[in-house]
Write the structure tokens for this entry.
Amino acid sequence: MALTDWMAATRNLALPIFCKLCDRRLLTEDNGFFCPECWERSPRIERPFCSMCGRPHRGAAGFGFQTNFPCAECRAKKSPAVRRVFGAASYDGAIAEAIKLFKFHDKPRLARPLAALMEEFAAREVDCPSYALLVPVPLHPVRERERGFNQSRLLAQAIQQCFPNAQLDESLRRIRPTRVQSRLTGERERRSNIAGAFAVMGDDLNGKTVLLIDDVVTTGGTVEECAKALLRAKAGAVDVMAVALAGYASG
Ligand SMILES: [Zn+2]
Ligand SMILES: [Zn+2]
């Protein structure tokens, strides 16, 4: 037993820990917060899903569709800056709770199990060698100081090994503070909150293909705005990868 495992086991005996979702006692510190049952039950995104926004096609399961295709909403979009979005899971169950703990309750060690979900998905669905840059969605420096870390950077660092040709690039910056998008209700309010909030500092990106890393994609407004800034800095194409996609019925 490695020393860190032994320390975790000892701590668990002295101070039992329980699944944050079902209150079952955790016997190992797999991810330290959720039992394996709750973790496994949280819905992963599987084929068929939209080849642009990444959301599962509701009702398509069981019809033998193995090939992904764009949803009606994406087919109607006029030249979005984001080429495609990959989401490993639905924002639901233990995974949603884990993301909230991770970023709002100062639990950076949840980056590891959340990144593992992205890695599983990437191995199945993503052409990993095609990306030259992994770019975390930046926080405004004030918020990052309050939180102590940028959750997207921790995720990007944790999955970097799956992308043999990609470098971590942090030249994308949030140049003005914004409010939390998911707390705004109106479409117009969300758009003006985030418009022009990002810029690439330093050299341009020379036609490189970017994979933008975020924890949760909801309406896609933030990643779209990031992608515009990356394309202005001459990125070749911008795709997005998130732990979870929210804002749709996952049932
Ligand atoms: Zn549980
Ligand atoms: Zn779509």
